[in-house]
Design a protein that fits this description.
Protein name: Phage terminase large subunit-like protein
Order of helices and strands: HHEHEHHEEEEHEHEHHHEEEEHEHEHEHH
Distance between the termini: 61 Å
Domain Terminase large subunit gp17-like C-terminal: 261-408
Keywords: Viral release from host cell
Number of strands: 15
CATH topology of the largest domain: Rossmann fold
Organism: Afipia massiliensis
CATH superfamily of the largest domain: P-loop containing nucleotide triphosphate hydrolases
Largest sheet: 8 strands, mixed
CATH class of the largest domain: Alpha Beta
InterPro entries: P-loop_NTPase (IPR027417), Terminase_6C (IPR035421)
Helix content: 25-40%
Amino acid sequence: MSRAELELLFARWDVFAHDHQVAPKLAPNGQPWLTWLLIGGRGAGKTRAGAEWVRAQALGIPPLADAPVTNIALVGETEHDVREVVIEGVSGLLAVHRRDERPVWTSSRRRLEWSNGAVAYAFSAEDPESLRGPQFGCAWSDEMAKWRYAEATFDMLQFGLRLGHQPRQLITTTPRPTALIKRLMLEPTSVVTRAGTEANAYHLAPTFLKGVLARYRDTRLGRQELDGEIIEDRPDALWSRALVESCRVSEAQPLARIVVAVDPPASSGKRADACGIVAAGITGEGAIYVIADETVSQATPAVWALRAIALWRRLEADALVAEVNQGGEMVRSVINEVDASVPVVSVRASRGKWLRAEPVATLYEQGRVKHAGMFSALEDEMCDFGPSGLSSGRSPDRLDALVWAIASLTFTTRAAPRVRGL
């Protein structure tokens, strides 16, 4: 075959697409669908399916589109994610087009424009208000289960989906049992397709697949991240999904104190645990808000110290709380080497993880702790934390940092508050 013939063949998405990557024609109620949820494991081909669907909408390629859609919304967890994954990624929008039909990406305007006049605009779920005003004929929302302000962003997007005969939206996401995802799956105008990581094995490195399956197969984390299952509560966990959802708010109230807690790993390198870095604050009335999770994986002490100090500066926190059981005074020394002005409060564990976490879980049940936004990875650890002290068979580093932060705000003597906005 000639080069032109090969390019034409490779552009035929309907020839190569897996069944789960092709949108069903009708919703369960027998009517055309309005929301398509493509729920799959890591590497299952969600991004490629999303990019091909948007390409078909912009160019009016049947049977996925009857005519070109002129205004398209692209919404990701962050602006960086939209650019690096949805647009410029190896399976993103620029990659799936033939050279002669490829749209022009203007990053300064967050705008993707096709030669036929169709335009796609990039939005971050961290800024729901940016969706107030624009209007669209279709939308692609990527990794919605991880969005920090999922409900607010989704609501603003729905008000803008008002162009054309039948505005539709595609949601590609690794599953989490969030209230929004579960509600959308039950709507009569929604269709759901699912796939695990192994469904796309041909396009994945064999060593990757072998490694992750060996480590995570049959674990709760593996069922979620590899099999694409929505994992509900474990009966012996201290936190439930419903409890965490009930504690979620869009933003924190003015805080009297803020601390950044660090749970350092015992070692560094590829086999090291993550370094938990979580920030929380307390109001003058005693309400606690979790406001950041900057946990870093496989980092050297210098790297996690820089990350923790940067968060401390950004939030203008009062102290940096560091657990010193593993590294002793090494933790304080590392932080002081980066910035000697950081006030470090050392804490030492005298009880097991489960016993330390129980009083904090009680504060959640009393409604005293709120999450200012979505902290997906942290919340996964919380809802899979069992009496063994492990979460998905691993050390719950984010949860440990959370416990230290909340405990330092509530169970220790604290200095006079100074109210500040966040």
